[in-house]
Amino acid sequence: MEELETKYVTPLTEAVTGLLDYLWTFGIQLFTPIQFIAIFVALFVALVLHRLVRRVIKTVAETTEGRLTRRALATAGAISLPIGWVIGLWIAMGALSAFGQPITMVRLFASLINAWIIIRILTTLLPSNSFANLVSWTIWAVAALNAVGLLDPTILWLDSIKFSSKQLNISLWTAIQGLIVSSMLLWVAYHSSGFIARRLEAATTLSPTAQVLLSKVLGIVLMVVAVLVGMQVVGIDLMAFAVFSGALGLGVGLGMQRTVANFVAGFTMLADRSIKPGDVIEIQTGEGPTYGVVKALAGRYVSVRTRSGTETLIPNEILISNPVTNWSFSDKRVRRAVPIGVAYSTDLEKAMALAIEGAQACPRVLKLPAPICLIRGFGDSSVDLELRFWISDPEGGVANITSEVLLQIWKRFREHGIEIPFPQREITIKNPPAPEVEAPQTPE
């Protein structure tokens, strides 16, 4: 019995007693009049400065252009009060510590306000609500631990949990640091690549292909650098991942070869400039021919906006390994050929002139090269003509301009009495059978 009490009861009693002593001491240090006075004085000074800062920000915002700048100024105006308050609290903490006064309550207020400021800034910058909530709860937890003086013991406890091997020795605290640093650097790299891409799009001296290629290369380089820097910051030896790199290469060769093939095909198309944003292409897919304008070139696919308004995502590998009709590869001018049939009794020269006139009446048809009409042959029911004309905007559609030209030709043919024949067949019956004659019926 005494052994059980010595082994279990006594350590538990000492732990509870130590916790109660800590809470009693913390409570005594927390509620002191001098700290209340320091907190309210810091708040009063922050309110006065807040009004002045908001006036200045309002004046600057009226003369500032740009959505991002206005958003930053609005956020600065909203957090100017807590920033002024927390600065006053840190000054009060220094003054109270110099005179040997407790600072527990002031530190609690300062930690919580610091957390609120950081959370407000991050929720403004982070697009994902779930990720913003995770960051918010993490910051609140760190602020609470710091306010009660348990942050340093928690860090020491996390640092004592280690994962060791022959080439790798890392603690749980080091892993958390690496995750935080890498996440921040990846976030900065992601937004930096987006900013660079927008700046490249505004550069008129670069072709669309060069803009996309440079933005993708810079984005990948920034991501890789962010990960490597994050690992170096926490002291992780990159040579320790040599075996992992070999396994990753084997996995890529076996299970991710299609993904890698699409990725490499995307860079190949950008390098040889065979397909670029704004091109009008036509390709055979599983659901038939796809015709549309290339809107974007991603790492794995090409986005093609069809005439129906939908966007078809075509893997890069298909565009590399299959024939593709690029209507605007070197020249956006496209010739269309429209077959027309007229009756044998028609004045062909007049019909050909009316067909050319109908094409010239459409605004999208180019004046040069001029439309022409040719006789292609003599069919069973009609003389076969072919009208050829050129357009310079295939992204606007080719079926609709063909329909418009045919409508104009139809109107002119109707006005001048030109007949568009339809197939007719004459059936001649040789040696028809004699009709059957019924014998007269005799009355009964």
Automatic annotation (TrEMBL):
Coiled-coil boundaries: none
Protein localization: Cell membrane
Ranges for domain Mechanosensitive ion channel MscS C-terminal: 338-420
Keyword Transcription regulation included in the entry's annotation: no
Keyword terms of this UniProt record: Cell membrane, Membrane, Transmembrane, Transmembrane helix
InterPro entries recorded: LSM_dom_sf, MS_channel_C, MscS-like_channel, MscS_beta-dom_sf, MscS_channel_2nd, MscS_channel_C_sf, MscS_channel_TM-2
Chief localisation class: membrane
Domain of life: Bacteria
Residue span, Mechanosensitive ion channel MscS domain: 259-328
One GO term describing the cellular component: plasma membrane
Transmembrane segments: 30-53, 73-93, 99-119, 131-150, 170-190, 211-232, 238-256
Membrane topology: Multi-pass membrane protein
Pfam short name (any one): MS_channel_3rd
UniProt similarity note: Belongs to the MscS (TC 1.A.23) family.
UniProt name for this protein: MscS mechanosensitive ion channel
Lineage: Bacteria, Pseudomonadati, Pseudomonadota, Alphaproteobacteria, Rhodobacterales
